[in-house]
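Figure 2 data, in text form.
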Amino acid sequence: MVRIEIIVKAIVTAVLALIWLKNKPSRKTTSMVILGLKGSGKTTMWKLLKGKHLSKGHSEPSSREKIESFEVKGTDGRKVSISATYDIGGGDDYVAQYNSLIEKHTMIYFLVDLTKLESQKAEINARLEKIVTIFNEKGIKNECGFKIVATHLDETLYTKQVAKNRVYEALSEGYRKFDIIALNLFDEYAFLDIKNEIVNAGINI
């Protein structure tokens, strides 16, 4: 009985933490971070946001690299400036750095590899728990944005909707209110949706 109460309390806490989360950047957004496990595409996403053209099969594991301020250009030609931040690795030893990266008005893109969803399910939920804990401890749950990006769609037979459903099924109940998009990072047109939502916020972050 005690264990059930603990589980229910954890679910309720997680749901309440997500109620006020935005699912894309807003005019109040001042910083952006890309998080996720190893091989999920974090470094690739940073490079694509910078406008670099990468070939299929490109892989460049990261450790901790300074991301200097740069501009993101939308399909309509408008640009916004992304503030300097860090691209960190996906290993467990980098999770402690989440605390310094997530501040008030931060937009977080959390990447999950669809091809490793089942094997990494426990780790994914543990990372989400860490992020929600930071929101709660800093009192910033209604001041941040969060979106899950399901990558490597091209390496599965899933449609985008099926891929999103698979991610929802892998998440603990308390985290199923997170907004999810599924894409192939090397599909330039699909990735434009992310670029445009950043630019359409109309702010420098």
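Caption note: Residues 121-138 form the longest helix (18 residues).
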